[in-house]
UniProtKB/TrEMBL annotation:
The lineage of its organism: Eukaryota, Viridiplantae, Streptophyta, Embryophyta, Tracheophyta. It comes from Opuntia streptacantha. One of its GO terms (molecular function) is glutathione hydrolase activity. GO terms for cellular component: plasma membrane. The chain crosses the membrane at residues 29-48. Keywords: Membrane, Transmembrane, Transmembrane helix. GO terms for biological process: glutathione catabolic process. This is Gamma-glutamyltransferase. The keyword tRNA processing does not apply.
Amino acid sequence: MGSHGRSIEAPLISGSHESSAQRITWSRLFFLLLALLTISVLGLAFGSSKTSWGLIIKDKYNGRAPVHDSEIVESERGVVAADDGRCSEIGASILRKGGHAVDAAVATALCVGVVNPMSSGIGGGAFMVVSSASTSQALAFDMRETAPAAASQNMYKNNPEAKSKGPLSMGVPGELAGLYEAWRK
């Protein structure tokens, strides 16, 4: 109130009798709608473009990449594929010498364990499914790591540090024994 009993208002500054909380709510709503509109426009602009990231990734990894004649491999005995060409060649050489698919798979897996030990190897585990063409039966091999022989349900209760240090902190590798078992059968 002013000195003469009149209220002092600034209609040009406030514009209305909304509370500051209402103005903040409307401001947030306005900026949210503006952001959604901007995202929509950008999505339409880049989403329909042939050079959009989504299309590049799809073409590179999920799409049908052009295959050149020099990359086509045909075989009546079998083919071997690994993430390292040297290992693929080792497996293929086993097939060429009269070995069967499991012989080639074991040789290839052992090679990958040497050239890429972080992805595969005798210190880890694996799975293998072997299908017999003559019997139409499949045999699955679980070569995953197992708990140490000294493992128990409450082995970390009195020694929490054993979770990350020492022989109880890791599994027993199973890949080598599993590859041998698959090769034997």
